[in-house]
Amino acid sequence: MKELEREIRYQGRILRQLKREGTTAIYEVLSDGGGFLYGYEVIRIKRVPAEEKFGKSYPERELYPSSAKNSLDWGTIAWSWGRNQKEHAFGQFKGLAAQYGNAYPKENQTLEDEI
Asked: Is residue 31 part of a domain?
């Protein structure tokens, strides 16, 4: 399986992985040049099966949670923290890593599914 990249460029920003334990990771969010820290994102890494999309084949792989409007990811398997909230972000990261270990989130999982 293809693992999630440690550095991702997305919408003019750089997402750089600071730490990963199992299927939980914390990324710092930087300006495109890397000179400005926007904040942190704590995520549970998604896994998708091998598939063909738009005529192209993709292997089984890990994905960063979606920020699309119709996605349920943000607030259920992904959270944003400000640049002055590093300790809070790492606290959440440690708690999620201890709780979930190597378990991937279920497709379209919500907080109610956890209760």
From this structure: yes
Is 84 among the domain residues?
yes
- The four Cα atoms 30, 69, 71, 66 give a dihedral, to 10 degrees, of -20
- Domain membership of residue 37 (yes or no) is yes
pLDDT tens-digit series, residues 44-56? 999 999 999 999 9
CA dihedral of 69, 44, 62, 7, whole degrees rounded to 10: 90
Count the neighbouring beta carbons within 10 Å of the beta carbon of residue 100.
Answer: 18
DSSP β-bridge partners for residue 62:
47
Taking the C-alpha atoms of residue 95 and residue 93, their distance in angstroms, rounded to an integer, is 5
Q: Residue 2 falls within a domain, yes or no?
A: no
- CA gyration radius, the chain: 14
pLDDT for the residue 1: 92
* Domain interval for residue 68: 7-104
Total structural domains within the chain? 1
- Three-state DSSP at 92 gives helix
- How far is it between the farthest Cα atoms of the chain? 44
